[in-house]
Amino acid sequence: MTWVSPSFESGKLRRRSHFRVLPAQHTFNPKAHFDDEEASRWRAVQESAEHRRAKELVAAELSRRLSAGLAMPWAFKDADASEYPLEGNLLLGADDVATEHSLETPFGSKFRLDVAVLGPPVQVEPMVLGGVEIELGHAFDGRSRS
Questions:
Q1: Beta carbons within 10 angstroms of residue 55's beta carbon
Q2: pLDDT tens digits for 39-49?
Q3: What's phi and psi for 70, nearest 5 deg?
Q4: Is residue 26 within 8 Å of 100, Cβ to Cβ?
Q5: How far is CA 63 from the centre of its chain?
Q6: pTM
Q7: 28 to each of 4, 37, 38, 69, how far by Cα in Å?
Q8: Which of 7, 91, 100, 109 could link 34 by a cystine bridge, Cβ 3.0 to 4.6 Å?
Q9: Pairing state between β 12-15 and 7-9
Q10: List of E strands, 2-144
């Protein structure tokens, strides 16, 4: 299903907005899309010594703070989304810090965090409370190679 926006011609409504059901061959497959992008990123991005060292240092500092009972405050504000920032303590409720932590998306693909902050297990797997992605040449785009 997709949303069709209204269209106008010479100032007159040509097509009203409505939902449209797409034929089966045009449906979006999030798993295939995600896996294709991940494979492309894996080929394009290989871990450098600098990236590995940064990841190790971040994980070591988070582990040190966790062991010492210290907080790791964070804040994020997107002025386009809200006047108020999201804020918290990255280590609140954490049991462990791990590098190269893989997790599975709801649609069956793998995602890997450079550094993961892990909490108590939910069923069998530890709960991922937070993640850190190390980026040098560009802003993090929300994706990580698996």
A1: 19
A2: 766 655 566 78
A3: -90, 155
A4: no
A5: 21
A6: 0.65
A7: 16, 14, 17, 45
A8: 109
A9: antiparallel
A10: 2-4, 7-9, 12-15, 18-20, 73-76, 86-89, 96-104, 110-122, 125-132
Separation between Cα atoms, residue 110 and residue 120, nearest integer Å: 21
User: What 8-state DSSP symbol labels residue 23?
Assistant: P
What whole-number distance in Å separates Cα of residue 94 and Cα of residue 28?
36
Contact 89, 66 (CB under 8 A): no
Distance (Å, whole) CA 99 – CA 83: 33
The C-alpha angle with vertex 37 and arms to 123 and 40, in degrees rounded to 5, equals 120
Q: Is 70 left (phi over 0), alpha (psi -120 to 50) or beta?
A: beta
Q: What local confidence, expressed as pLDDT, does residue 137 receive?
A: 64
Specify the residue for token string 């069709």.
Answer: 4
* pLDDT for residue 42: 61
pLDDT at 4: 82
Other C-beta atoms lying within 10 Å of the C-beta of residue 139: 7
The two beta strands, 86-89 and 96-104, are unpaired
* Phi and psi torsions of 119, nearest 5°: -110, -165
